[in-house]
Amino acid sequence: MFTFLTLLTCQTSQASDLRVPLSATGGVRNDYDYPGSTVSVLSNLIKSWDGALSKEDRRRHTNAVILTLESVPDGQVMEWYNNNEEAWGKIKPVLSWNVQGGVCRKLITLLYKQGKSREYEEVGCYTIDSQFWTFARQ
Amino acid sequence: MKHPYTVKNYLWLVIITMFVILALLSGCSSAPKQTAQFCNTSKTIEVKDGTGVSSKTVVKCSDDFIERHVPARIGVDQNCRPVITQYGRNYVCETHTPGRYVYISDPANLSN
């Protein structure tokens, strides 16, 4: 039953949506333990909740990432801030290349929330077939 | 002879109870978010010829969305352009550092 609950908690629709950057759902903590025991699984769940961005910040970050992909040249930086929750994000495209019928761009993202931060590397691609940006972690 | 009621028998019950208590506590502890305008207060105290003291409190409130959402140290220009996203109208502002932009979203669009 506990395993079922854990899987249910971890499997969110947003995490499986390729149109949402993984940095938006991954949160700011990366100090997870190896899930070899019940205690470590519980501890990881608590860390996951603690480090998760709020719903508003996930939307804010997703919007900022998509705007960055569409309009910010490589090497420049897009930032967002949430003074109320002491959170911010910085998004920097570092590489762009053409793919068949579209473009892919590599991003380095830094997220911060209440004293904790985490860096992500991910790739967003836009193709004629997909009609929207899809994301994959490096 | 083993005692039938050991702590081990109740381990799952204890874990699930902790899980429920934790969920309840985290739900109850979420404070309402501040969405009203931002105000700064400054107080000036004047001594008049040693005979009296007067004080003046100035409350300065701002509706400026840049002042409300971006820390002052970031140095954002007033040069902001509106952008339409799937969550409505938002803004991208230039900063004083070339090649650095700030995305500002309207809270009304985020809470929908």
What attributes characterize this protein structure?
heterodimer, A: 138 residues, alpha+beta, five-stranded antiparallel β-sheet, 5 helices, 35% strand, B: 112 residues, three-stranded antiparallel β-sheet, two-stranded antiparallel sheet, 3 helices, 5 strands, 40% strand, flat
Descriptive notes:
The complex is a heterodimer of chains A (138) and B (112). By secondary structure, chain A is α+β, with helices and mostly antiparallel strands. Chain A has helices spanning 2-10, 13-16, 22-26, 38-51, 55-71, and strands spanning 77-82, 87-99, 102-113, 116-127, 133-137. In chain A, strands 1-2-3-4-5 form a five-stranded antiparallel sheet, covered by helices on one side. Chain B is an alpha+beta fold and 112 residues long. Chain B contains three helices and five strands. In chain B, the strands form two sheets. A three-stranded antiparallel sheet of chain B has the order 3-4-5. A two-stranded antiparallel ribbon of chain B has the order 1-2. In chain B, strand 1 (38-48) and strand 2 form a beta hairpin. Chain B starts with 10 loop residues before the first helix and ends with a helix. Residues 31-38 of chain B have low confidence and may be disordered. The chains are: A alpha+beta (138), B alpha+beta (112). Chains A and B meet through helix 4, helix 5 and strand 1 of A and helix 1, strand 4 and strand 5 of B.
- Helical content of chain B (DSSP H or I, runs of 4+): 10-25%
Q: Report the mean per-residue pLDDT of chain B as an integer.
A: 69
Number of strands of chain B: 5
Strand order of the largest sheet of chain A: 1-2-3-4-5
Give the SSE string of chain A.
HHHHHEEEEE
Indicate the radius of gyration of chain A in whole angstroms: 16 Å
Protein structure class of chain B: alpha+beta
Strand content of chain B: 35-45%
Low-confidence stretches of chain B: 31-38
Q: How much helix is in the residues of chain A?
A: 25-40%
Unreliable spans of chain A are 10-15
Could you give the count of β-strands of chain A?
Answer: 5
- How many helical stretches of chain A? 5
Number of domains of chain B: 1
Biggest sheet, spatial arrangement of strands of chain B? 3-4-5
Please state the overall shape of chain A, judged from the principal axes of the Cα atoms. Answer: globular
